[in-house]
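Forgive a beginner's question, but would it be possible to get any protein sequence you like and the tokens describing how it folds?
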Amino acid sequence: MKDPAKAVVLFSGGLDSTTCLAIAKSEGFEPYALSFHYHQRHRVEVEAARRVASALGVREHMVLELPLDRIGGSALTAAIDVPRDASPEEMPDRIPVTYVPARNTIFLSLALGWAEVIGAGDIFIGVNAVDYSGYPDCRPEFVEAFERMANLAVREAVEGRMRFRIHTPLLRLTKAQIILRGMELGLDYGLTHSCYDPDPQGFACGHCDSCLLRRKGFSEAGVPDPTRYAPSE
């Protein structure tokens, strides 16, 4: 029997990346999960990534340290307040201060390097251009441009041994559709974490863009929201 194709999956431990990982597995790929401690506001995200990766059973889970706080420029990496209680309908019309400069470009570049080393021609990323916060590096134009660049930039592609594909299975789905797909795949979203600004115990704030989109998704999907919200929210 032929071994399954390897795939690098960018993985934060959040709702979207968890669904993306499950989809990669359902399509027959052997997932290698790649997470980052980029000195974001909290370590809860990395802890969730470790927890979910273990539960889903990946071939390998790598967590890389990136000091993006040295660059700053984002409410997730600098002393800038996280926006609260924005209207979900307004989110795609602005690029909020939670945007981390060049984050997906950096993450995909490191995923590409690992993919080349392990012989994986496929990279999965859970970007979404429907129910999202308006980040420019979640758009299809960005992903298409990165895939073209990837096949010009690395030895295995230039010498004709591999062609790299960037998979975005969530790109055109609403948050509710993402949740329903994950439920079909048997996911426990109670293991995941999405909040930008959790309290010291790791409870979600319930007010940041990510919490609002997550809550809206569960409501529209008609699925009970398993998120642990802070008591004061």
Remarks:
- The longest strand covers residues 30-37.
- The helical segments are 15-26, 44-56, 103-118, 140-153, 155-158, 175-184, 209-221.
- Residues 10 and 108 are 8 Å apart (CA to CA).
